[in-house]
Amino acid sequence: MNKATIAVDGSQSNGHPINPYLFGHFVEDIRDHMEAMLAFPLKDMDFESEAEGKAEVSGRWYPYTNGRNTSYALEAPAPKHSGRAQRIRILSDDEAYAGIAQHLALNGPIRYSVKLVARASVEIRYVIVEAVDRLRQERLGLERIELDSHNWREYEAVLDISRDCADAEFRIYVPAEHPRWQDSVSTGMLWIDHISLLPEDHIGFVKREVVEMAKDLNAGMMRLAGNYISAYHFEHGIGPVLERPVMYNEAWGGWTSKYFGTDEFIRFCRELQVEPLICVNDGSGTPEEAAQWVEYCNGGTDTPMGAVRAANGHPDPYNVKYWEIGNEVWGAWQVGTCAAADFARRTVTFIEAMKAADPEIVILACGHTNQDWNKAVLDIAGERIDYLTLHLYHGYNRFAMDRSTPAEERYKAIASFPEWTRHNIEQTREQILSSPKHSHVKLAITEYNTMYYPNNVRKGVPEEHTLGAAVANAANLNEMLRASDLVHIGSFSDLVNGWLGGCIRVGDYYADQYCGKLPGWSGHPLTVYGTPTYEVMKLYAGREITRLLPVRTECGTFSVQSNKPAPIKLDELPDLDVVACTNDEGSLITVFIVNRSLQAVTTTLDLRGLEVSEGTHLHVITGDSDQDLNTVFEPNRIASQMSDVPVETWKAGYVLRPSSIYVLEMRTNR
């Protein structure tokens, strides 16, 4: 068994504070992020998608009829609405039911509000909305909606769902028992422009479980950004939701959610009591548009966009302080990608326009791990910006590894994540400090996570969710804490699903963007749970820490056998990654210990004579293997556990399990 000594000097702390924004998170409209995060169980609510079957029925919907002559068509939407209208033509002589249906998962017992925008030929007097268990054909809820106008109208109803059902069918239809009508050119037609269900426990359109789990993260800051932002126009995501246009997601395909725009994002942040960070569209957008977004959020009601916000039901300014310009502009996948100097000049024009709308805002500008990019941005725009951003994703591609590489070597490669982070931070620090005109700039790591590239031929379970990934992310947080004089902001990527890194998981979306099973395959699509890294983020952000303490660690080492040259030394990496912190009063010492080793380590704690009172707490995130993970089948397999371990036990030697994360809290006599 390996041995180690950790010496903590509690008599002094460094001069800089630890910013609580270091433990932030990130919302992006990527793949199923919004679908998983939002509380609406129905998809294609505005009939925006193309027909997928023989009948002209939008997207996830399919015909629900036993009529030989029922026909379907997609037509223009209701006035001011987007998407399309679904037309259903029913032949009276068929004496059949006819409508549309969709597979979905429903919670229960709970009340769902039903919103319907529809019109019908005059002889169709009502429709039925119904939910049934597809397997048992058991009715879960039914409601009749009277149609009292030939013109477009909005209808509302309440659908009581009796119980949970993972495999339900929602139907809206004209029933067979509806009084028949005389066939002619103007009869038997029903148009549906919008149909949605929303559970009564939603919070600002977001699933209650997601809000509650996100609250436990104590994020400090929530970022709205990602590749989709560079083709996103904020004015399409404000105002009455049904009147917002449907926007194609140019970055990821599918549709950008019009149900989570600026107002919903701000409400989400207020619910979580975190600071919002908004990234503006500098790809297809303009400085004037970015300034309007700032004014919409921060302007008084006497400003044009502040008046629009007030008209949308929000008279008080949101006072969004942090604004980011550019998301991975250096990437070929980004709308508006360009050279660094071109981006920097563009950034200056955006800053001028945005600060004219609100001079008090804090500006973040797109940085890169490539220092040539950072040099150009800092030389041209450095005097005007407050933060430079970095995105740090760590995967096998850095080592020329793949799934044929032995599992132990792959684990050690991922566990070296903080070494790369240190290299990127220190290179960028040197660049920032190279000139007094931009030496004030701080760092914001606005995206980071383990990626496990190459990952488009994955077999089996998703490795991003493992205990090993949590170890890597915890050690990475330690590195960010050590550099917290420069690094003030962190945004873990992503918050909910989106890609396999999302730390809150909804359902069984276990696939990368190319491969994997269809969602719902497990029979547990309603399960909401956290990954092992969710447990890490919750544990770190929930501690009472404000400053660093000197700490010295003597321990064993490991090496990573990279198959290509690396810019850092990968031999003799410490088994233990340790950071010590204290609160303002010095009355609480918190030691973050990550055992990156695949071996147990007997660890002795040296407090340099500091007296510790009773009531030490030890939080542990561990498992039987670095490959352990949480799933819909075992959502709590990896979870943080707390116990009391006396300081005397630590002084004698405490055994740290392999691939595990520990947080030790000790009250002093100060």
From TrEMBL:
<keyword id="KW-0378">Hydrolase</keyword>
<dbReference type="InterPro" id="IPR017853">
    <property type="entry name" value="GH"/>
</dbReference>
<dbReference type="GO" id="GO:0000272">
    <property type="term" value="P:polysaccharide catabolic process"/>
</dbReference>
<protein>
    <recommendedName>
        <fullName>non-reducing end alpha-L-arabinofuranosidase</fullName>
        <ecNumber>3.2.1.55</ecNumber>
    </recommendedName>
</protein>
<keyword id="KW-0119">Carbohydrate metabolism</keyword>
<dbReference type="InterPro" id="IPR055235">
    <property type="entry name" value="ASD1_cat"/>
</dbReference>
<dbReference type="InterPro" id="IPR013780">
    <property type="entry name" value="Glyco_hydro_b"/>
</dbReference>
<dbReference type="Pfam" id="PF22848">
    <property type="entry name" value="ASD1_dom"/>
</dbReference>
<dbReference type="Pfam" id="PF06964">
    <property type="entry name" value="Alpha-L-AF_C"/>
</dbReference>
<feature type="domain" description="Alpha-L-arabinofuranosidase C-terminal">
    <location>
        <begin position="446"/>
        <end position="660"/>
    </location>
</feature>
<dbReference type="GO" id="GO:0046556">
    <property type="term" value="F:alpha-L-arabinofuranosidase activity"/>
</dbReference>
<comment type="subunit">
    <text>Homohexamer; trimer of dimers.</text>
</comment>
<comment type="similarity">
    <text>Belongs to the glycosyl hydrolase 51 family.</text>
</comment>
<comment type="pathway">
    <text>Glycan metabolism.</text>
</comment>
<dbReference type="GO" id="GO:0046373">
    <property type="term" value="P:L-arabinose metabolic process"/>
</dbReference>
<keyword id="KW-0326">Glycosidase</keyword>
<dbReference type="InterPro" id="IPR010720">
    <property type="entry name" value="Alpha-L-AF_C"/>
</dbReference>
